[in-house]
Amino acid sequence: MFIIWKLALILPTTDHPIHIPHSLADLKLLAATLKVYSSSHFIYVLVLFCAVFLFKQSFGVPGSALLNVLAGALYGYPAIILISVLAAIGSTIGYLLSKHIIGTVIFGNLISRSRILSWRMAVDEHRDNMLPYMISIRTMPVVPGWFVNLASPFVGVPIGTFFTSTAIGLVPFHYICVQAAHTLSTLESMAGIFSIWTVLQLFMITAVIIVPVVFKKRLAKLYRKITSY
């Protein structure tokens, strides 16, 4: 947080000071301000954005969608790669914090152990197809992201698989957010990002990932049956 404060002091002051956006209206003003700053302080703005993004992602602070849209407004479609890598790094920091520091305190107190065991059983079923399974978890977030970050080290998800699946699995969501940045001026609410079409897109992408895994498992079972005779 010291880096965030220090970098913010370097940038010029305006009627709209640098801060973390909390609403769409807030985001529009901040995007306009940072675009002006970025033209003469590109590196400072980029480092400031990365620091805030990593902080929020590491500690599971809500509001990542607003930052995703902000990234799209500032950097266009290349922002998809930037925020996907940052999300993977931040989530992995959360993974490590959970594994070595806060996990044993949280589970059993704030999160029931039965919920952990239930997800561990699901993970065990996909042990042979761990990466596609974890990518699908990220692509269609039926399981909350913060829970995936905290629980993964305790259900046997390797850190390499965790990082890779986060970076790849969040790309569709990041694409939708960055795409929304191009219509930021006409966007009336964050709900406008998630139209029926965009939700269908997420479902289709998830299906493309999951279907081969399901068929592979069924074919493997069939092969074992045939060879057992």
From TrEMBL:
Membrane topology note: Multi-pass membrane protein
Ranges where the VTT domain occurs = 61-179
Superkingdom of the organism of origin: Eukaryota
Where is the chain membrane-spanning?
36-55, 67-87, 146-171, 191-215
- Keyword tags: Membrane, Signal, Transmembrane, Transmembrane helix
| Signal recorded as keyword | yes
Q: Which InterPro entries match?
A: TM41A/B, VTT_dom
Statement: the UniProt record of this protein carries the keyword Transmembrane = yes
The GO cellular component terms are: membrane
Chief localization: membrane
Q: Where, subcellularly, is it found?
A: Membrane
Stored PANTHER family:
PTHR43220, TRANSMEMBRANE PROTEIN 41A
Name the chain's protein: VTT domain-containing protein
Species: Batrachochytrium dendrobatidis (strain JAM81 / FGSC 10211)
Q: What is the lineage of its organism?
A: Eukaryota, Fungi, Fungi incertae sedis, Chytridiomycota, Chytridiomycota incertae sedis
